[in-house]
Please model this.
Amino acid sequence: MRITEVALEDIKSYADRTVVPIEGGVTAILGENGAGKSTIQEAIGFALFDSLPFNNKEFVREGASSGTVEVTFEQDTQNGTERYRIVRSVGRSKYGVHRYDPDADEWIDQDIDSKKQLVDWLCARFDVDDGDELSSLWSSSIGVPQTRFLSDFSQTPRNRKATFDALLNLDAYEEAWKTLKDIPDAIESQQQDLRSDIDTLTGEVQGLPDKRAEAESLADDVAAIEERIERKSSELSEKEAEYEELEAVEEEIERLDQEVDSLERDIDSTESNLETAKEELAAAEEAQEKCEANREGYREYKQASERQEELEEREAERDKLAEKRDAQEDTIKEIRFEVEQLEEDLEELEEARETLEAREADKERYEKLDDRIKSLKDREDDIEALEEEIEQLAEEIEEKEEEIESVEETIAEIEAKWEETTNPETLSDEINDREARRKQLASERERLEEQLDRLRDTDVDAPCPTCDRPLNEGHRSEAIEQRETRIEEIETEREELAEELAELRERREAAREVKQRVDKLPVHRDKIESLENEIENLRTGKKEKEAELADLEDDLAALPDLEAERDDLEEAYDEYQTAEFRVEEHVDVPAELDEKRAKLEEEQSALAEIKDELEQFDGLDEELAEVKETLEETESAYQTYIKHEQQASQVDERQERVDELESKLADLEADLEGTEAKLEETKTSFDDERFETLASEIEELKREIQRAKGTLDEKEENLRKEREEIEELETKIEERQEKLQQLKELKADQQFAKWVRENVREAGPKMREIITDRIGSRANELFRSIRGASAETLEWTSDYEIVVHDADVQKSFSTLSGGEKMAAALAVRLAILEQLASVGVAFLDEPTANLDRQKKRNLVTQLKQLDSFEQLTVISHDQTFDSMTDYTITVEKDRQTSEVSVN
Model:
């Protein structure tokens, strides 16, 4: 996964919508404390992982009713790289997921409008089971809050185990052991149910042979009825074929009757159409005569109309030139005005150059004084910085003294605790005794369970499998009850022993912790000596800074006199600045003035050319008036010609229509005569009496077949029911065999479940040792690279304690300096992230506290080499990261509002 963009609106100190682009590789988010850096990390955790380290209302900007977070990310899938945008609001219910469609270049809504739908969608995307695991993935691995970064390693062994077992999924072994507790009893209950089912099934399958005989008899009856139906159906087919032949003759008679009627109607219609066509032909011939009478007037009108179009085109051309002439005159007026303005600007330019020459010396003296004053004022900030450094050194001295006091209290506490603690070896002996007793009870339980299985499976009157006496029902029940009672007693005692063992192991673990702390007392005493040396060095540095502060205060005493002299020169300096601006503003005026004057002459010449072109259109209006007079005189003849032109052109077409209809009428009369003769011939070949007899015989055969089919359906239904009952009984026989096999398998499962439960709990500590060893080895590589000290090594023990070895000295996490703690925690966190963070992104909030510049550079180098991550983001107030990382985002806060810039 790759996060490409985060947008915040009304979130904490972010007011208007602020977009933060995120790149690949190592990114630094920089800014002062309180600027809003961590808010970007919190927004990603809130939107993508449903994780927020405080109440939702605290996430909304003060004064706003709600806020919105948008996170855009890319993810590689089987279909290629897909891009999504998650939208989530605080203070109101707004949830959304949008997918980017590159083909359509638009965002497609995924129809998600509730928190549950959003969390379920995110769980599926990041391959986690539920919302709790999604939130834990962020808070414990990808985006560990700054407050937990070190504190997780400073907890007691028990709390460390709870924290990191859950993170590494090792708590699953303990949960599995608890879950498996009731499985053996559940399997025994299943065995009892199976035995009862087997007895029931044995009684139900006794009548199977009788059912099979009845089904065979019904099958014979069905075959006889089907043969009779087939015989009657054949006879029915023969009669239906003869009936269909006569029915076809009857249909042909009806068709010929209809054809005669149709031909008679067509003849009537054709005669009517012929009369209409003759009338239309006479009208077309009359229109042709009127067109010939008005042809000359029509021709003159058309010629005048075409000439009018030509003259109107010239009129439009003349009007366009007139408009161009008017526009040219306006342009000349504008250029004349611009020339006047430039002449005024030229006068200002000459005056400004004179002022520059007169004020040059005053301006140079003013700037020298101003630079000197600024230099001294910049050093005023140095006073505040020196005072802060002196105060910080004093605080560090006080912190070191308090740390010495704390270490001395730790030594006293360890010594007192050791006096109250039982030796771990003594507790180990007690644990071994109880473990031996549990194994002994487990062996006895297995022997009793084997005897129970044999007692239940042995037939009555056979020798007892446990004592060889004849086995009757009373003896069997008594023996089973005795062994079941003893098994319950064993289970009770084993559970008590398990509780005692857990308590003893916990006491031994605590005792070992105390013993480890006792072994580290020399380290604590060395720590006190080291802190005393550091205090001495800090006191020396404090004295040097106090001397530097006194010298700086003396240099600043001359500042008021310098400011007074500068103020006297300020008016002259302002005049110089104004004149300099005027010179820069009007430097191009002489050239522009020459250019405008040349332009004016050019435009005046163009105007003269336009006026010459307009003279060519003299007399145009008179010629147009003559053409219009001709149009008025010939318009009547033109309209008469146009009115009858189309109808006159149809004379030939209408003559063809009359000839066509006369021919069609003759053909229809011939067709009618032939069809009437064929109708009479067909009627003589139809036997009406035979047609009616066949219909009666067919109906009788259909009734007989229907009655036989009714009997067949009844027999087949009875046969189907018998076969279903047979199939059901055969299924029960198979079911009985399956249940016998299941009973055998359950006995084996019961024994296996008991064995698994005993071993699954013991696997947890072994897996913890393997995982912490693997992560610790990688963490050691990172720690040594960050520290740059080849003599130091890091160990992450099976109880999740960080131990640093420096030559022959072994130091626990609580005794490390601030820089050592941060480097060690960073190394382990990064190693865990490499092991677990399948999402491919990680955030480190202020990971460089107490690291010097070289160790910060070492850290960034290691971050860039982590191949498991596409993106690693470091959040810090330390500006030195700006030159170390691939990409830098700076957050600044002005008037309670955060602003983001990208480098």
The first strand starts at residue 2 and ends at 9. DSSP finds 20 helices and 14 strands in the chain. The chain has a mean pLDDT of 81.
